[in-house]
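[09:14] KT: can someone run the structure on this one? pasting the chain below
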Amino acid sequence: MKQYELIIFDWDGTLMDSAAKIVSCMQIAAKQCDMPVPSFEQVSHIIGISLKPAIKQLFQINDDGLVESLKQAYKVAYLQQDTTPCPLFNGTEAMLTQLKASDIMLGVATGKARRGLERAWKNTGTGHFFTVSRCADEADSKPSPDMLMQILEETAIGADRALMVGDTTYDMAMAQAIGMDRVGVSYGVHAPVNLQAHNPLKIVHNIAELNAFILPHTQAFV
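[09:31] RB: done, structure tokens below
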């Protein structure tokens, strides 16, 4: 069985159940900026992309001033107005604890800005699990593989020794672009049929199943 030295996780929709909050905040931003209020499905489709290109795609706009207004309204809603909880998916901390104990390196590649990821780590007490991370304000937006390439360069680990785990086609596409193995999770925001189009090794349906798949691929490092 192939052994990996590095497991890279997406954050929103993969480790943290944050889709409902993201959708709610984007809807609040739309109302405040007098834009058509997008549906849950419409917002879900752009989760994972960096915020500015996500807003452009969601609202089909190129007006930089309007994009900035929506961006700031979203941030205020996220930090100050919306109270939707963002828990870790059930079993996430136990999985990370078990993987970390096997001495495998863990990383994050996320559409969040650095400040947002650090806030999420602080709120969940999980930052200590991760050796390396790249955020939306440090690399080109998914589905560009830039985040993954930066992580591989920093860790000096080849793409063939790393595994990407994510809930969106953007996660699958960026790993596929550089020949990195990938696992899709069906409990996030993109449908399994769309994830399957990027030839993941497997699509899992909960954290327990994800852990059961990953752990045997780390045993060489125990």
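[09:33] KT: thanks! The radius of gyration is 17 Å.
[09:34] RB: yep, looked fine to me
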